[in-house]
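Exam prep: given the inputs below (a chain plus adenosine-2'-5'-diphosphate), describe the expected output before reading on.
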Amino acid sequence: MIPKVKLSSGENIPQVALGLWKNKDEQECINTIKTALDLGYRHLDSAQAYENEQFIPRGIEAAGLKRQDIFITTKIKVQNFAWVDKSFATSLKKLETDYVDLLLLHFPVTGLRHRAWKHLEAIHKAGQAKTIGVSNYTIKHLEQLLKDCEIKPAVNQIELHVFLQQPELLAYCKEQGIAVEAYSPLAHGNGLDDPVLAEIAKKHGKTSGQIMLRWCIEAGTIPLPKSTHEDRLKQNIELFDFKLDEDDMAKIKTLDKDMRTCWDPTHIL
Ligand code: A2P
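Solution:
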């Protein structure tokens, strides 16, 4: 069973999710969700921009589970920041539910993010999002938000992996009680052949991918790996029967090279 961690909202979140980015093909997405749920996943990370919210209820049904068994995340896409409520109502319809477990602002959109956050606060108060948070926020964006929000974001979802370790942002989020979710925790598969990872993997009888994901767990974050293959989906949750020791962590520290595979929000005003 995948352990859960408590968020500042009081809700419990399974510590590994199935990331659904790029999983747009209807049948493949439904099959992936069903396979993942059969394997024990209970946390699905979607977004308006992923165009697959509507497949989630069918994947859950195919696995013989109920909506309330699953922790569902969606995100308000950049193009919808000016009409958050309307777009969120569409998401709920697609997800065939009257609430999501976690609702995020997908990106720190200049000029619009502050008002968009007010809408998330109202959605949370209305019970339609049990937890609210942000994604791709840097320390600067979080500082601005924390200055005058009514409800603090409980989560910041960022690109995070052994090649992009972001220690300052992790420390800041920890200090503020904001849980960090790690997207692209496998760096999209880049770097899986790294010799340092291979050596640590051999020592623990694991794969390099599992070492990358376990590093996210050791860093206190919630990794959201993506895969459409059963063997990898299985591997990606087999992370709780071993630990990385100090020596492993010291070696992994040397792999940090600020390597982004996705959006870079650093210069967003
Ligand atoms: P696939 O879907 O063919 O399994 P990230 O989550 O960092 O974006 O990485 C996703 C990429 O990594 C996908 O291309 C996925 O391919 C691949 N992947 C997922 N899990 C593993 C794994 N355990 N080992 C190797 N590659 C993986």
